[in-house]
């Protein structure tokens, strides 16, 4: 029996999900993870998110800055830069087209 493994689906869209979470508010690693889980991506692993943040930063889509914390270690915040906003728009366009195609394919015929 064929089963859809959501972890495999997440691998293809995690970059886009992280960019989307950062669209309106900067965030630090755990905060971004919490926002993704609150949005419904409950099966995301911590290491996947931190790896994605490093990869998106290395690709030039994010900037970082450090904020001191009185409750523990300093927090490294991530923010979308103009290249990240462009990537989010382009990725969103591709996702909407792909999702529309899948919805058409999966629509039950009467």
From TrEMBL:
Gene3D superfamilies: Winged helix-like DNA-binding domain superfamily/Winged helix DNA-binding domain (1.10.10.10). InterPro entries: Metal_resp_DNA-bind_regulator (IPR052509), Tscrpt_reg_PadR_N (IPR005149), WH-like_DNA-bd_sf (IPR036388), WH_DNA-bd_sf (IPR036390). Residues 18-90 form the Transcription regulator PadR N-terminal domain. Pfam families: PadR. The gene is padR_2. It comes from the Bacteria. This is PadR family transcriptional regulator. It comes from Catellatospora citrea.
């Amino acid at each position: 029996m064929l089963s859809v493994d959501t972890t495999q689906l997440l691998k293809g869209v995690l970059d886009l999900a992280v960019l989307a979470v950062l669209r309106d508010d900067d965030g630090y690693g755990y905060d971004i993870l919490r926002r993704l889980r609150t949005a419904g991506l409950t099966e995301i692993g911590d290491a996947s998110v931190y790896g994605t943040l490093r990869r998106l930063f290395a690709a030039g889509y994010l900037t970082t800055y450090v904020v001191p914390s009185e409750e523990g270690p300093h927090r490294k915040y991530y923010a979308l830069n103009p290249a990240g906003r462009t990537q989010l728009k382009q990725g969103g366009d591709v996702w909407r087209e792909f999702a529309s195609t899948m919805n058409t394919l999966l629509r039950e015929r009467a």
